Amino acid sequence: MSKRAVVVIDLQNEYSPSGKLPLTGIEAAVANAAKVIADARARGIPVIHVRHEFARGEKPVFVPGSSGAEIQAEVAPLEGEPVIVKNHVNSFRETELERLLDERDVQEVVVVGAMSHMCVDAAVRAAADLGYSVSVIHDACATLDLEFGGVKVPAVQVHAAMMAALAFAYATLKSTEEYLAG
Questions:
Q1: pLDDT in tens, 16-38
Q2: Domain range holding 8?
Q3: Is 59 a catalytic residue?
Q4: 86 is catalytic
Q5: Which of 7, 45, 76, 120 could form a disulfide with 40 if both were Cys (CB 3.0 to 4.6 A apart)?
Q6: CATH number of the structural domain spanning residue 177
Q7: From the candidates 35, 39, 119, 139, which is the catalytic residue?
């Protein structure tokens, strides 16, 4: 088995039901992510947390120092677990994520987090492009309803479309149960 790391993307308070940008299914996704994180910790698999901030105040969400920018308590990092602060959708862009993975000789990245159609998608594609094997725990990710051209797309369909696209060429998709059984 290749050396693995779990990358937890943007499971921040802003996405919780009381946040400024609540996601459909976020509570279940966080609960599943917590199981994946607990398993990684028990098995000595590195856990790397990613936290989004809009450092220049360009958006009214993920404001540095705000409670919304904090990682949700259920998946909060333990002392010694790295936290990458990013200012872009892609967790690899202008961050130390690739360096941290390479220092740990990681070959397989397991992704959980939010939002399925944005930061999860960008990180998965970037990781695959950088040569990592990627697994996405699909029920440990969440998103929201979208609209384009007057067409409203429910979050469940947005999530399914993104997971189908990632499974087509970028990652292996597993449920939390499948991942933990493997």
A1: 999 999 999 999 999 999 999 99
A2: 4-181
A3: no
A4: yes
A5: 45
A6: 3.40.50.850
A7: 119
